[in-house]
Design goal:
By secondary structure, the chain is an alpha/beta fold. The protein is built from nine helices and five strands. The protein has two domains: about 80 residues, Methionine synthase domain (Methyltransferase, Methionine Synthase (B12-binding Domains), Chain A, domain 1, Orthogonal Bundle), CATH 1.10.1240; about 130 residues, Cobalamin-binding domain (Rossmann fold, 3-Layer(aba) Sandwich). A five-stranded parallel beta sheet has the order 2-1-3-4-5, with helices on both faces. The longest helix has 27 residues. It binds 5-hydroxybenzimidazolylcobamide.
């Protein structure tokens, strides 16, 4: 796809224009463009520009909300395409996903869920503003392999630790792998709170989820003959 189209996608997010964002996504699908390329090269860079402009005081909250709306409009077109790919694959594992307590950012989490689904994972999305106990209860109910926790605010990333603790408290820690992500989150933070891994973006989350599944099925060296 020409770079012009990716630029137009990016601009549709900056402009907070849902109709344009969705129209461009439809064009991309009709042209046989991989949805993940449209997301990675078009729409996500637009969200990053919006974040930077907001941080510099060049954009206000209603603009940021309009941009989020445009992102959702594009995702509504691209998500079914990505999910269709997932149904053609064997089940890779069960993932419970959510944004941590106090935090309503959901775009990144939705993207992670969509890509995991596209790669054969069965994903249960708990939504936003989710307490640790709720993650633990759902993980128990679904016999989840992995819990994925998103946090976009420096004030809410500490609640990721609360999720790790809730899973420990529920006695599930040996069965459930925990991965964390979100703009302020780092690998170091993941280690500090006792999570099993950190992913910087949705595709890395898929790679990490596969690694965590492989770790789960590995026989500990002490039990090998
Ligand atoms: Co929001 N917001 N926001 N916001 N927001 C951020 C996050 C700031 C960085 C903007 C800034 O100042 N530069 C900032 C946080 C500063 C900080 O804490 N250090 C901020 C702020 C301050 C706020 C409010 C407090 C503003 C206010 O009210 N004054 C408020 C908080 C409300 C709350 O949560 N309690 C707020 C509100 C909003 C909305 C509602 C307007 C809107 C969210 C709409 C929605 O999601 N439905 C919004 C948005 C859109 C943003 C920015 C612009 C974009 C976030 C986004 O969608 N990024 C963001 C700026 C930024 O992040 N640069 C800004 C795109 C996605 C694709 O990236 O990082 O979310 P991602 O996800 C990646 C990656 O991290 C990873 O994979 C994803 C896909 O590639 N990943 C995981 C994510 N979760 C994972 C979990 C895993 O297990 C594994 C990988």
């Amino acid at each position: 796809m020409p770079d012009d189209n990716f630029s137009a996608m990016r601009q549709s997010i900056i402009d907070g224009a849902p109709d344009t964002a969705s129209g461009l996504a439809q064009q991309a699908v009709s042209a046989g463009i991989a949805p993940i390329d449209a997301i990675n090269h078009g729409y996500v860079p637009g969200m990053h520009d919006v974040g930077e402009q907001f941080a510099k005081g060049q954009m206000y909250l209603p603009d940021m909300m309009a941009s989020a709306e445009a992102m959702r409009a594009a995702m509504a077109v691209l998500e079914p395409e990505l999910k269709r790919l997932g149904t053609e694959r064997p089940m890779a594992g069960v993932v419970v996903l959510g944004t941590t307590k106090g935090d309503i950012h959901e775009i990144g989490k939705i993207l992670v869920g969509t890509l995991l689904t596209a790669h054969g994972f069965r994903v249960h999305d708990l939504g936003v503003d989710v307490a640790g106990e709720k993650f633990a209860a759902k993980a128990q109910e679904l016999h989840a392999d992995i819990v994925g926790v998103s946090a976009l605010l420096t004030t809410t990333m500490r609640n990721q630790k609360g999720v790790v603790e809730a899973i420990e408290k529920a006695g599930l820690r040996s069965q459930v792998k925990i991965m964390v992500g979100g703009a302020p989150v780092t690998r170091r933070w993941a280690e500090e709170i006792g999570a099993d891994g950190y992913a910087k973006d949705a595709m890395t989350a898929v790679v990490l989820a596969r690694e965590l599944m492989a770790q789960k099925t590995q026989i500990p060296a002490t039990q090998q003959t």
